[in-house]
Write a structure and sequence with these properties.
19 strands; eleven-stranded mixed sheet; globular; about 600 residues; Alkaline Phosphatase, subunit A; 16 helices; four-stranded antiparallel sheet
């Protein structure tokens, strides 16, 4: 395979081999980005870097060797950090999947597109819901597609599929600038694995089951009372009540009873290729797709976003990695994830693209502290010294994520940057590298990282960063650049107990408001420069600048709130609920069923 890759890398007659173009591209791109020269438009276009973005799911920042872990083996990601720039204060814009990814794709806080909770729902919960990333939002893929890039997404999407019909695909990746998609339109949930206990909205499932039982008992009681002539009611009324109860049962069972079939599917572009998906095959299929995409597009600039299913529960891990780590199933899954990353990086190198590829690795948010097995053992990640985890508002453990960038010859190797940065910064960074323009008709919350990564700027462009949980502002940080101190103000925090059986009193994820959230008056204040674990809240007696900091951050919050405007809520009940007419289906609904052959062709099993 390596010899074939090297032969292919030489390219067709009349074109420079990728390796040869790579050296010249690095030299020219470095000069352009540093501002030491300007290239004609045609030349600049010829040397646009390839862009490879890799995002893990639910990975804790403390799970990687390059961030201090000495018990899990992550050599490939560690090597990426050694050859590039590592950020130590890189922050997700939200502590949960769907809103964090919406912000990452658009460079904007997710509430600006309606992709945040206004009620108890904080993520998309069905493929057949009508909510999702609105069509008027601009992703980095759309901008680069307009700049002549091939744009691919392989892996998890979780930004919606359809709006009004099964085939309108209004929220689909291909409607947001990606010209190729292979992966899960939804996300992994425990329901995808028959051997795991159900996960998806178990509280609502229990309520609906209870209401059905009550209704059924009422119908039986009515029928018995009529038979004994204790009440006067028509047979039509009894039959109507029975029919209503049956319809109610079928509606909730059709959704919750078939979560695996409705949500755990694979798609290639607009077509469903596996329903339900075979979990054990998913990682291998996506790796094959990623390598194939790189090989197909090695002679043109491409953007490839690899959105890994690892390390989200149910922690599907192949036999080659089971039992090999020091941290049970979760550790096995992390080490398999690192291997997958290594194989993708190998494909970049074997095709002669290392020096012409801007590579980035991160996680969508912190590790999941509430993920536990039936014995109470934790199945989520380790967030290092940082407090809290996935879903927990503004606590560092839920929003501080890995941030690793590599571009040999352009970015310095082995550099570590402690400045506050955001996942939202990737949007303007990628747009700049691809030769595009950041939209001027909307608020963009991210800033290009190019000057910071190269060393042209000493400080991050962010003076203030705002940390939301749903639509609620939980915390804000101020980077006092003159002193180098980073202040963190918490206005509200979820009540959690890391040592208990479930960090938020057994809830699946901590709430953003209402019961289970503490409002702080006065707010909690931490100096992250001296106390990154947020263990010692400051007081006026301990910190002379206490009132000054609270006032300065309060002014910034007030200015920030002036940029907010109402938008349609994508997580409203009507958008979240399961709608059978929107369900992606392989075959004829409701008999949706197919699996992929080895060549990737879907086929329906014999009935």
């Amino acid at each position: 395979m390596r010899s074939q890759a090297r032969t292919a890398a030489r390219g067709p007659p009349g074109r420079a081999a990728p390796a040869a173009r790579g050296s010249l591209a690095v030299l020219l791109c470095a000069h352009v980005l540093l501002g030491t020269c300007e290239l004609p438009a045609a030349a600049a276009n010829a040397f646009k870097p390839n862009i490879l973005l890799i995002m893990a799911d639910d990975l804790g920042i403390g799970d990687l060797g390059c961030y201090g872990n000495d018990t899990l083996r992550t050599p490939n990601i560690d090597r990426l950090a050694e050859e590039g720039v590592r950020l130590t204060q890189h922050l997700a814009a939200a502590p949960l999947c769907t809103p964090s990814r919406a912000a990452f794709l658009t460079g904007r806080h997710s509430f600006r597109s309606g992709m945040e909770a206004s009620n108890r729902y904080r993520v998309l919960v069905w493929n057949a819901g009508s909510g999702g990333l609105p069509g008027n939002e601009t992703t980095f893929a759309r901008v680069l597609q307009q700049q002549g890039y091939a744009t691919g997404l392989i892996g998890k999407w979780h930004q919606g599929v359809n709006c009004a019909s099964r085939n309108d695909h209004c929220h689909h990746p291909l409607s947001h600038g990606f010209d190729y998609f292979y992966g899960m339109p939804f996300t992994l949930v425990n329901d995808c694995d028959p051997g795991w206990p159900p996960q998806l909205d178990s509280a609502l499932r229990a309520k609906l089951q209870h209401y059905t039982q009550v209704m059924a008992l009422g119908v039986l009681t009515m029928a018995a009372a009529k038979t004994c002539r204790l009440i006067s009611v028509s047979r039509k009324a009894v039959a109507g009540m029975a029919g209503l109860t049956l319809l109610f049962f079928l509606s909730w069972y059709a959704s919750f009873g078939f979560v695996r079939r409705w949500n755990c599917i694979l798609m290639r572009n607009h077509d469903v290729t596996a329903q339900p998906m075979v979990l054990e095959r998913a990682a291998g299929l996506m790796l094959k797709e990623a390598v194939s995409y790189i090989e197909r597009h090695k002679h043109e600039p491409f953007l490839l976003f690899v959105s890994l299913l690892h390390v989200h529960t149910p922690l599907v891990t192949t036999k080659a990695f089971l039992g090999k780590s020091q941290h049970s199933l979760y550790g096995d899954n992390v080490e398999e994830m690192d291997w997958l990353v290594g194989e993708i990086l190998n494909a970049i190198e074997e095709n002669g693209l290392k020096n012409t590829t801007f590579t980035y690795f991160t996680s969508d948010h912190g590790g999941h502290l509430e993920a536990r097995d039936e014995h109470g053992n934790q199945l989520g990640g380790w967030n290092g010294i940082y407090r809290g985890g996935k879903g927990m508002g503004g606590w560092e453990g839920g929003i501080r994520v890995p941030g690793i960038f590599r571009w040999p010859g352009v970015l310095p190797a082995g550099r570590v940057i402690a400045e506050p940065t955001s996942l939202m910064d990737v949007f303007p960074t990628v747009v700049q590298l691809g030769g595009g323009q950041v939209p001027q008709d909307r608020v963009i919350d991210g800033h290009s990282l190019v000057p910071l990564l190269q060393g042209a700027d000493v400080h991050s462009a962010h003076e203030f960063l705002f940390h939301y949980c749903g639509k609620n502002l939980h915390a804000a940080r101020w980077h006092q650049k003159e002193s180098g101190r980073v202040w963190k103000v918490h206005y509200m925090t979820p009540q959690f107990h890391p040592e208990g059986a479930g960090a938020c009193y057994g809830r699946g994820t901590c709430p953003c408001s209402g019961e289970g959230v503490t409002h702080h008056s006065p707010p909690l204040l931490f100096d992250l420069s001296a106390d990154p674990s947020e263990a010692r809240p400051l007081s006026p007696a301990l910190e002379p600048l206490y009132h000054t900091v609270l006032a300065r951050v309060g002014e910034a919050v007030a200015r920030h709130r002036e940029t907010l405007s109402p938008v349609p809520e994508q997580f409203s009940v009507s958008n979240i609920m399961w709608k059978p007419w929107l369900q992606p289906c392989c075959g004829h609904f409701p008999f949706c069923s197919c699996q992929e052959d080895e060549d990737g062709t879907p086929h329906r099993p014999e009935l």
